[in-house]
Automatic annotation (TrEMBL):
Keywords: ATP-binding, DNA-binding, Nucleotide-binding, Transcription, Transcription regulation. Residues 46-275 form the Sigma-54 factor interaction domain. GO terms for molecular function: ATP binding; sequence-specific DNA binding. CDD domains: AAA (cd00009). This is Sigma54 specific transcriptional regulator, Fis family. The keyword Nucleotide-binding applies. SUPFAM superfamilies: Homeodomain-like, P-loop containing nucleoside triphosphate hydrolases.
Length: 376
């Protein structure tokens, strides 16, 4: 037991979620790019064994040498930051800084200060002048993850920066020239956000000069075992353990899983397996996959359950239709968003991911419904 606890304690020191890593990196934004900066294991897992991954790599190699902005599209956990880093490393900017930023990690009131910088006294609490992400990435690449979460007001300023190649800090009128390549990423369809009026069409086309769509892990099965072995090796080396391998039963279990959480889920499962495996062998029982994926109801029970759920939903829809009026669609949308918001424990980011829309859309709808208050 003590040995297991010791393992948990040691491994916990390396167990950072990307948002926390990036927040840690934010303290170092004005420093030159350094390999010593904290970087997730997943962001360095350059595994391209599956045919779809090889095709993806070929596209990256084709796009990277140019100076074009890049838009990366893919489900959560598919390795968008990895591809962004690979674009940077294959470009003429590889010796410059690579700055990774999650647009959903900061409040609407702070995001412009973080992006463009601030002068002392620019707003209440601005006690010192500081550079923003664009200045920090000068001569290199700025990676903006979850670009769909950027507020509309900030989108306008971002578009101007991309057009003019200069930034103006909050509280200043002096433009600062910048030389930055922008790589953006999203897990939602920005076309839908544009149609809904929550993402600027001109910015969308400015970002989408070159675009890369990432396949899900379930659609690139040839990468599952190589990735798993990569994660085993990386965590083992960080902990100073002896060689650890995955046995055949473990490999088969990994190959049969659906991977709704993609590479991130695989990394976490391997991470946990290293805590509990014995004799330096990861076996099937050490791989604690999602029970939702492993224990599906029998076909007849599933059919019965689906029929009941369908009837219940149909009854609810009939009630809304009977109310009539010109706002039927809006009422349906309200029910879906509000229910999803409660299901996600009032977390806007998780609600947006669940519904496949941007956080801006979720926030605007919740404010209109009175579920949350607008920022003043």
């Amino acid at each position: 037991m003590n040995k297991i606890l010791d393992r948990q304690f040691e491994l916990a020191k390396y167990d950072f979620d990307p948002p926390y890593q990036e927040k840690k990196n934010m303290q170092l934004l004005t420093l030159p790019n350094s390999q010593a900066l904290t970087k997730s294991i997943r962001a360095t897992a350059q595994v391209f064994e599956d045919p779809k991954s090889k095709a993806l790599l070929a596209r990256v190699q084709q796009i990277a040498p140019s100076e074009a902005n890049v838009l990366i599209i893919g489900e959560t956990g598919t390795g968008k930051e990895l591809i962004a880093r690979h674009v940077h490393q294959l470009s003429q900017r590889k010796n410059g800084p690579f700055i990774a930023v999650n647009c959903g990690a900061f409040s609407e009131s702070l995001v412009e200060s973080e992006l463009f910088g601030q002068e002392k006294g620019a707003f209440t609490g601005a006690l010192v002048a500081k550079s923003g992400w664009f200045e920090a990435a000068n001569g290199g690449t700025l990676f903006l993850d979850e670009i769909g979460d950027l507020p509309l007001s900030s989108q306008v300023k971002l578009l101007r920066v991309l057009q003019e190649r200069e930034v103006v800090r909050l509280g200043s009128r002096k433009p600062t020239p910048i030389d930055v390549r922008l790589v953006a990423a999203t897990n939602v369809r920005l076309e839908e956000a544009v149609a809904a009026g929550h993402f600027r069409e001109d910015l969308f086309y400015r970002l989408r000069v070159a675009h890369i769509e990432l396949p899900t892990l379930r659609n690139r099965p040839g990468d599952i075992i190589p990735l798993a072995e990569y994660f085993v090796g990386e965590y083992r080396r960080r902990l100073g353990y002896a060689e650890i391998r995955i046995d055949e039963s473990g490999k088969q279990k990994l190959l049969q899983h659906n991977w709704p959480g993609n590479i991130r889920e695989l990394e976490n499962i391997i991470h946990h397996a290293l805590l509990i495996c014995k004799n330096n062998i990861v076996k099937s029982e050490d791989l604690q996959l999602s029970t939702i994926q492993l224990h599906r109801p029998k076909e007849n029970n599933a059919t019965y359950q689906a029929a009941n759920e369908s009837n219940s939903l149909e009854t609810s829809l009939h009630q809304i239709f009977e109310e009539g009026g010109d706002t039927i669609y809006e009422n349906l949308e309200d029910v879906i968003i509000k229910t999803a918001y409660h299901y996600c424990h009032n977390n806007q980011v998780q609600t947006a991911k669940l519904l496949g829309i941007s956080r801006n859309i979720v926030r605007a709808k919740l404010i209109r419904m009175g579920a949350i208050k607008a920022l003043r």
